[in-house]
TrEMBL record:
Entry's localization field: Cell junction, Tight junction; Cell membrane
Record's keyword terms, sorted: Cell junction, Cell membrane, Membrane, Tight junction, Transmembrane, Transmembrane helix
Family statement: Belongs to the claudin family.
Main location: other
Domain of life of the organism encoding this protein: Eukaryota
Described function: Claudins function as major constituents of the tight junction complexes that regulate the permeability of epithelia.
Protein name as annotated: Claudin
Gene that produces this protein: LOC101348240
Membrane topology: Multi-pass membrane protein
Membrane-traversing stretches: 79-100, 120-145, 165-188
PANTHER family, A to Z: CLAUDIN
A cellular-component GO term for this protein: bicellular tight junction
GO molecular function: structural molecule activity
Length: 225
């Protein structure tokens, strides 16, 4: 019963992590304009993401523009684009693998040992995906904070942490938690199987008892002969 609950919780965490990874990859709010100094009177918001930059003036609809080239991005955003694309693929593969390893899935048979190894694989991939998401989000966040407190950087070029970064940190934790739950399911199943095979059956114990009880009588008969 506890194993089923862990499987459902792990699958739900994997699904939320997959959706969160895709959302973080698409969202343009990685870097947002910082309203400090003379920028307070500027009535415009600027967002910078992995694929496009958006600007919204006062009382004007938001305008977004896709980057003309990958070289237009800073090195941290270039690396973040590749890592987030890889994380999106890994999260999808891990989620589909987890579905195959669920106890209610019949296409992989009824062998609990095989399903346990499938869930272990899905758990490891989820943990790796969480680390892959955590690297670019933390990298970009560190660059934003470093430039924000750098006095050499112009006030108009300073940025703040966007919503995509906070969602990315949360998604990484959810992915790691989901992978840990699947690993716990595998450990519990292996422990239950080893405990099951280590306890002899009642029929085997009873048979060995009668065999041991019968052998002295045969030996005693041979003495009388």
């Amino acid at each position: 019963m506890a194993s089923n609950a862990l499987q459902i919780a792990g699958l739900a965490s994997g699904f939320m992590g997959m959706v969160g990874t895709l959302a973080v990859t698409i969202m343009p709010q990685w870097r947002v304009s910082a309203f400090i100094g003379s920028n307070i009177v500027v009535a415009e918001n600027m967002w910078e993401g992995l694929w496009m930059s958006c600007m919204r003036h006062a009382n004007i609809r938001m305008q977004c523009k896709v980057y003309d080239s990958l070289l237009a991005l800073s090195p941290d955003l270039q690396a973040a684009r590749g890592l987030m694309c890889a994380a999106s693929v890994l999260s999808f593969l891990a989620f589909m693998t987890a579905i195959l390893g669920m106890k209610c899935t019949r296409c992989t048979g009824d062998n609990e040992k095989v399903k346990g190894h499938i869930l272990l694989t899905a758990g490891v991939v989820l943990i790796v995906t969480g680390v892959v998401v955590l690297i670019p989000v933390s990298w970009v966040g560190n660059a934003i904070i470093r430039d924000f407190y750098n006095p050499v950087v112009n006030m108009a070029q300073k940025r703040e942490l966007g919503e995509a970064l906070y969602l990315g940190w949360t998604t990484a934790l959810v992915l790691i938690a989901g992978g840990t739950l699947f690993c716990c399911v595998f450990c519990c199943s292996e422990r239950s199987n080893s405990y099951r095979y280590s306890i002899p059956s009642h029929r085997t114990t009873q048979k060995s008892y009668y065999t041991g009880k019968k052998s002295p009588s045969v030996h005693s008969k041979s003495q009388y002969v």
